[in-house]
Write a structure and sequence with these properties.
Peroxidase, domain 1, 334 residues, binds protoporphyrin IX containing FE, EC 1.11.1.7, 47% helix, binds 2-acetamido-2-deoxy-beta-D-glucopyranose, calcium, Peroxidase, domain 2, Secretory_peroxidase, mainly alpha
Length: 334
């Protein structure tokens, strides 16, 4: 009798210990799919590599998608949802519309994964993996991608409107990052993503002709570079979608030359150059980090990898929250 009772007590304790322990175990981990989808990394890598063969810009576009996903409702794949009924897609918010791209590549990755391990890998994790692989394939650092995010069931159009913008001033941009516990080092490192990819004239047109309504070019823009940029971005077309490389010296290589450009007043976006050159001492904390990363690619790579893991941990849905979408563009039904 007493023995039986103590067994019950013991078992109850074990159950309690297990329940208590569960919350202490990491909900996300790099080996999350080890049993359920062991080839996840290789599959994502193969599709990204194929995309890169036909479009050298694909890695940059995929890297940006992870950022725009994580900064709106956390890293929950909400960016990938299309318009549906009353739900307004984040894709149509100004920072994304006619700009965010790579969605077809994500569809290709999802299709390959649904084929190999149906219903297992979330769209949010696909973006995190594709971002790391894109950086690595471009010659940048690698890192262990935390996995186990689940997909959200709603888009946040208003949230997407508020994404960091190229004409936001430095203090506002720093605030938008610190909201997610991304400090100045993370902020400067993450913008180093602009070592790859392109930007449309409409995002820096004001710098060339009419900065802050002054009808003057931006004084923090090198004159020779200004004249070069004016040739492909005419004054007559402020909405021009013509493309320029974000890092002209090595447009598709992930390296630290982006920071060297800033030191020579050759940042393409106002938000890029602002980290070094924002007026009124606003750049006093970010400028030394720009200088440090320009001088050490190792420092930049280490800080970038750390910051990407931090960004990837923004408000993930885990456990039984959210769902594993079957199609990244729509929430599951039925
Ligand atoms: C201050 C914050 C940031 C601002 C204001 C900003 C702004 C922009 C703008 C305006 C473009 C050009 C888009 C176009 O012309 O269609 C762009 C491109 C890009 N951004 Fe950012 N960005 C920021 C931070 C980041 C971060 C944190 C990442 C990733 C970690 C990132 C990755 C990229 C990449 C890779 C591209 C090129 C995309 C492509 O070629 O398709 N950006 N960004
Ligand atoms: C310059 O910008 C200001 C304010 O944005 C605007 O009112 C003005 O019309 C612009 N000037 C030109 C020449 O486009």
């Amino acid at each position: 009798m007493a023995a039986a009772a103590s067994v019950v007590v013991l078992c109850a304790l074990v159950v309690l210990a297990a329940a208590g322990g569960a919350s202490a175990w990491p909900v996300m981990s790099p080996s999350y799919y080890e049993a359920s989808c062991p080839s996840v990394y290789d599959i994502v890598r193969r599709v990204v590599q194929e995309a890169r063969c036909t479009d050298p810009r694909a890695p940059a576009s995929l890297l940006r998608l992870h950022f725009h996903d994580c900064f709106v409702n956390g890293c929950d794949g909400s960016l990938l949802l299309d318009d549906f009924g009353a739900m307004h897609s984040e894709k149509n918010a100004p920072p994304n519309k006619g700009s965010a791209r790579g969605f077809d590549v994500v569809d290709g990755i999802k299709a390959a994964l649904e084929n190999a391990c149906p219903g297992v890998v979330s769209c949010a994790d696909i973006l995190a993996l594709a971002a790391e692989i894109s950086v690595e394939l471009s010659g940048g650092p690698s890192w262990n991608v935390m996995l186990g995010r689940r997909d959200g069931t709603a888009a946040n159009f208003e949230g997407a409107r508020d994404l960091p913008g190229p004409t936001d001033d430095l203090d506002l941009l720093r605030r938008k990052f610190s909201e997610f516990n991304l400090d100045d080092t993370d902020f400067v490192a993450l913008q180093g993503a602009h070592t790859i990819g392109r930007a449309q004239c409409r995002f820096f047109h004001d710098r060339l002709y009419n900065i802050s309504g002054t009808e003057q070019p931006d004084q923090t823009l090198d004159m020779a570079y200004l004249n070069e940029l004016r040739q492909s971005c005419p004054a007559s077309d402020p909405e021009s979608t013509a493309l320029r490389n974000l890092d002209p010296p090595t447009p598709d290589a992930f390296d630290n030359s982006f920071y060297g450009n800033l030191l020579r007043n050759r940042g393409l976006l106002q938000s890029d150059q602002g980290m070094l050159s924002a007026p009124g001492g606003a750049a006093s904390t970010t400028a030394p980090i720009v200088v440090r990363f320009a001088g050490s690619q190792d420092d930049f790579f280490r800080s970038f990898a750390t910051a990407m893991v931090k960004m990837g941990n923004i408000s993930p849905l885990t456990g039984s929250m959210g769902e594993i979408r079957r199609n990244c563009r729509v929430v599951n039904r039925g």
